[in-house]
Structures are given as structure tokens and as C-alpha cells.
Amino acid sequence: MKEYAFYGWEKADIKDERGLTPRDYYDILSGIWCADTCAPRMRNDWSADNPTLGQCSITAFLMQDIYGGEVKGILRSGGNYHCFNDVDGCVFDMTSEQFGGEKLDYSDCTVQERSVHFAKAEKERRYEYLRTMLAEAVGRNMASS
After folding, report:
1. What pLDDT score does 142 carry?
2. Is there a domain that residue 7 lies in?
């Protein structure tokens, strides 16, 4: 099995109606994440070498659309939350590698509400863009399989 750098990849075996796992979506999103989908406050630091930087909430809510479950957040210094997914005990954080070797604590995390995150219109626009690009990429991948 291919190894990944994101937290929880080893047990992220849940499948959507197409049979795709979070690992499959990570592979697809790796070609989609870009400066335009990055949080504005981090955009100057975004690079292809660290594609998951500033992508956490929109990616986690997108995975929630696909798999259900909860989006949870780890409180970071500065008062922002880093978001990840918990689907019936299958915990995965597709954007954890943005922190390099830092170990995050995924226990006792707060559930994140979509309405709070998407109160920022720019975040909802980034989410919609990522969602559209992912749908197009999945369609291409399914057509070529």
C-alpha cells in the first residue's frame, strides 16, 4: 500500500458510493489544491511543496459532504481552529502535513459548524471552487477507469 503523510491515512478505509477512500481523494486533491483555495492569510506562504497549507476547513467540510461524520477542530495559537474529519471513529486529517513534524492532539476536539466557518463569504467561495474542481476531477478519473 502506498504511504501517505496525512494523519490517519492508515485506517482511512471508509468508501463513498464510488468506492473511493480518503486516500483516493487526497491523491485527487493534491492536483487541485492551489493558492486560490488557500486561506488568504496564508496565501503568501502557499507553495506546491506544501499544498495542504491553508486548506483544512474547506477540505474537511468537503469530506463531510462525501462521508458524513463530524468536522472537528484543534485550537491553534492565535485562536484559529485546524479542521479534520471524524466519521464514526475513523479520524483522518487530510491537511495535517502542512505542520511538518508537529504532532497535533486529536483528542477532545470541538465540533466545527459549517455555518460558522462559511459566515466568511471568501471561505465559502473557496469551498465551492474546490468542490467544483473535485467533482470535475472525479468525473474524469471515473471515466478513465
Report:
1. 56
2. no
